[in-house]
Amino acid sequence: MELMIVDDHPLFREGLKTIVSRDEKYTVVCEAGNGADGIRLGKRHRPAIMLVDISMPGKNGIQMIRELKQTLPETRFIIISMHSEADYIVEAFRAGASGYMIKESAAGNLIRGLDAVARGELFLDDALSQEVVYKLMQAKDGQGSGRDPYTTLTAREQEVLRMLAEGMTAREVAAKLFISPKTVENHRTNLMKKLGLHSTVELIRYAARLGLIDLDTWAI
């Protein structure tokens, strides 16, 4: 079964290839160091499974999966990330990932995760907390009856969300959109309420999980 690795750390990619080489069922046919190359090479090689990091230069792993799912519906994706927060993991599965494991436990879990995903199952790292499992169950239960809260935002609220998450002040957003700072604050209040957010830090992290901004540019 052909695999592709997308991670911006060459040494980590080498480590994954070493582990994969121990199992004759799998062969790494390609690797990439960022999301844009991952998309380009993924479309060219069409691997059965892609091992993907989240935090990378340019497009992050979740953005990459969303895009490739449109053209590679048969390819399965396993996230291998340093992020163990529940919200990242829920967003990864919503984007189309079939598995999620933490980098520090990847050595012991990689083949087991590959085998599970190859069988058409979902794989979740044993190291992840019960909070993660609970949130995943909540997300699954709500898929049939509720919408992603982001889709409830107006087009203008989505613009304001992205600009605020990028670090722009209310005055800067107002000047960019030709509206008053007071209107920007009203949009901010409304979108925070719709999304269930309570601080600017939460807003930034939410935007990063959606792929609207790169969280690596923020020291939070």
Automatic annotation (TrEMBL):
Disulfide bond listed as a keyword: no
UniProt entry keywords in alphabetical sequence: DNA-binding, Phosphoprotein, Transcription, Transcription regulation
Chain ranges of the Response regulatory domain: 2-118
GO biological process entries: phosphorelay signal transduction system; regulation of DNA-templated transcription
InterPro entries attached to this UniProt entry: CheY-like_superfamily, NreC/VraR/RcsB-like_REC, Sig_transdc_resp-reg_C-effctor, Sig_transdc_resp-reg_receiver, Tscrpt_reg_LuxR_C, WalR-like
Residues modified to 4-aspartylphosphate: D53
Highest rank taxon of the organism: Bacteria
Stretch forming the signal peptide: none
GO molecular function, one term: DNA binding
Limits of the HTH luxR-type domain: 146-211
Protein name: Response regulator receiver
